[in-house]
Amino acid sequence: MTKIITFKKHSVPVHYPSEQVTYIDLLHTKLLEMEYNFDFRKKWKRISSVEMIRDVAILQYNDGTKLYMEVC
Predict the structure, then answer these.
(1) Cα 28 off chain centre by
(2) Which of 50, 53, 59, 60 has the least C-beta neighbours within 10 A?
(3) End-to-end distance of the chain based on CA atoms, in angstroms?
(4) Taking the model in full, what pTM does it have?
């Protein structure tokens, strides 16, 4: 399944298995925690998509590199 999540005026598609809907809420909570982390906000602008695998968000940059972030 796919859902669009917006953080700081930048929308990104989030891909996740249908049985892991609760992890999307955890991702949203984690993004709210990172709101004042300016380094992360700068990185977020270059994110093209997010893939959720259990409690790990795999943030994929425009150039193909990935950042792994634990959401719980």
Answers:
(1) 8
(2) 53
(3) 20
(4) 0.88
Enclosing H/E stretch for 28: helix 22-33
21 with 52: CB under 8 angstroms? Answer: no
Tell me the CA distances in angstroms from 4 to 13, 17, 38, 40, 42, one per residue in order: 4, 14, 22, 19, 19
Q: Whose structure tokens read 């298995």?
A: 17
- Amino acid letter at 70? E
How do 47-53 and 10-15 pair as beta strands?
parallel
The 10s digit of each residue's pLDDT in 39-66 is 999 999 999 999 999 999 999 999 999 9
